[in-house]
Design brief:
- The protein is an alpha/beta fold.
- It contains eleven helices and 13 strands.
- The protein is globular, with a radius of gyration of 24 Å.
- The N and C termini lie far apart (52 Å).
Length: 350
C-alpha cells in the first residue's frame, strides 16, 4: 500500500511538472511569435515609408476577374461602388474596412461570381477602423488616376466594359468624394483621353511617387491583368503579377528574344510598380487603389493582406524584404528558423 502511495504521489508530481513545462513552452512560443511580428513590422516600416498604401483587388493572384451584363462591366467595380454609394446615403454611419470587404464580396456572390477580393496594405490595418478614400485629416492635394482599357481592335483581347466602369468611378469621386474635374487624370483608349500605353502609365505612376506628406492619391485600374514567371524569387507562387497596358500586344510582337523577355517588355510587372511608385512614397502620403483585373491580389507586393478569413490582417511571412528595400535579408520560411510550432502559433494569433 505504501509503495502504491509513493507511485501515485510520484505520478502526480510528474504530471504537475509536465503541465508546468507545457505552460512554459507555450509562453516561450507566444513570446517568440510576438518578437517575429515586431521584427516583421519594423522591416515593413523601413521598406515602405508611406503608412497609408491600401489596395483592394478584384481577386486573388490565381483567379480571374469576371465581367457581367451585356457590356461586361467588372463585377468587382459594380459591387464595390454599390457599397460605397449606399454608405453615402447614410451619413454618420461609418464604413469600416471589414464591412467594405464583406459587403463587396456579398454583392459579387449575388452576381454568381466565385472570385474573392483581396485587401493588401503597407501597414497592419485595424479592420474595424473607418475606411476613407481621402482621410479627413489629409491637408494636402488630392489626385485621382483612373485607367480604363478596352484594347479596342485587338481581337480576342478586346473588352467592352472598362471605359464605362472608369467613368462610373469618376462620377462617384466627383459626386460623393468631393473631387474636382481638374484633380482627376484619365488614361483611356477611346481617342478622347491620353492613351494608356505602358510608357504613359509608368509616367503617371512616377508622378504618384512625387506626392508630398498630407497628399491623398486614388488609383483605379480596369483592364487585363496577368502573371509571368518570377525571376527573383520574391513571390511564393513563382509568378509576378502584371497590369496589361493598351500597347502590350505591339510591345510583345516588337520585342526580339524568348517569351519571358517579350512578356517583361510588354507588361507592367508588380516589381516595377513597387520600385517606381510604392517604395519612393514619403511618410504621410495616402494611396488608395482599386484594381479590377485578373490575377490582381498582390499586384503591389505589399506586406499585409486580408482575404476575408479571420478578423485581422495577415503578415506575409514569405515576403523578402531585400526586395522591398535594400539592405534586408529575406524573411523566407520563418518556420525553418523558429520551429514549426512557433510558425503555427504566429498564424493562429493572427
Amino acid at each position: 500500500l505504501s509503495a502504491k502511495k509513493i507511485m501515485a504521489s510520484s505520478g502526480q508530481k510528474h504530471d504537475e511538472m509536465f503541465a508546468k513545462f507545457l505552460v512554459e513552452e507555450s509562453e516561450k512560443q507566444v513570446s517568440d511569435a510576438q518578437k517575429i511580428r515586431e521584427s516583421f513590422d519594423r522591416k515593413a516600416r523601413k521598406a515602405i515609408k508611406a503608412d497609408g498604401v491600401r489596395v483592394i483587388a478584384a481577386c486573388h493572384d490565381l483567379q480571374k476577374a469576371l465581367g457581367i451584363g451585356e457590356d461586361k462591366h467588372g463585377v468587382f467595380t459594380k459591387s464595390i461602388l454599390k457599397v460605397l454609394k449606399e454608405n453615402k446615403k447614410s451619413p454618420g454611419t461609418p464604413l469600416t474596412w471589414v464591412n467594405l470587404y464583406k459587403e463587396t464580396q456579398h454583392n459579387m456572390e449575388e452576381e454568381k461570381s466565385v472570385q474573392k477580393p483581396q485587401l493588401t496594405s503597407s501597414r497592419d490595418i485595424l479592420l474595424e477602423e473607418e475606411m476613407h478614400i481621402v482621410p479627413p485629416e489629409s491637408a494636402g492635394k488630392r489626385t485621382a488616376l483612373l485607367i480604363g482599357i478596352n484594347y479596342k481592335g485587338q481581337a480576342e483581347n478586346e473588352l467592352t466594359g472598362c471605359h464605362d466602369d472608369t467613368m462610373s468611378m469618376k462620377d462617384y469621386l466627383i459626386q460623393h468624394e468631393g473631387f474636382k474635374e481638374e484633380e482627376i487624370i484619365i488614361l483611356m483608349d477611346d481617342r478622347k483621353h491620353t492613351e494608356p500605353t505602358k510608357e504613359n502609365i509608368m509616367a503617371e505612376l512616377e508622378k504618384v511617387a512625387l506626392s508630398e506628406p498630407g497628399d491623398s492619391y486614388f488609383l483605379y485600374f480596369s483592364g487585363h491583368g496577368g502573371s509571368v514567371a518570377d525571376r527573383n524569387g520574391d513571390d511564393a507562387d513563382g509568378l509576378d503579377e502584371t497590369l496589361v497596358p493598351s500597347d502590350a500586344q505591339k510591345l510583345y510582337n516588337d520585342t526580339r528574344g524568348w517569351k519571358a523577355r517579350k512578356e517583361r517588355a510588354a507588361y507592367i510587372i508588380d516589381d516595377n510598380i513597387l520600385k517606381v511608385m510604392v517604395r519612393p512614397l514619403k511618410p504621410g502620403v495616402t494611396l488608395t487603389c482599386l484594381i479590377d483585373c485578373c490575377h490582381s491580389g498582390t499586384v503591389f507586393d505589399l506586406p499585409y493582406r486580408y482575404n476575408g478569413t479571420g478578423v485581422t490582417m495577415e503578415r506575409d511571412y514569405g515576403i523578402k524584404f531585400h526586395h522591398l528595400a535594400y539592405g534586408f535579408a529575406g524573411v523566407g520560411c520563418v518556420g525553418a528558423v523558429v520551429g514549426v510550432t512557433t510558425w503555427q502559433i504566429v498564424n493562429l494569433l493572427e
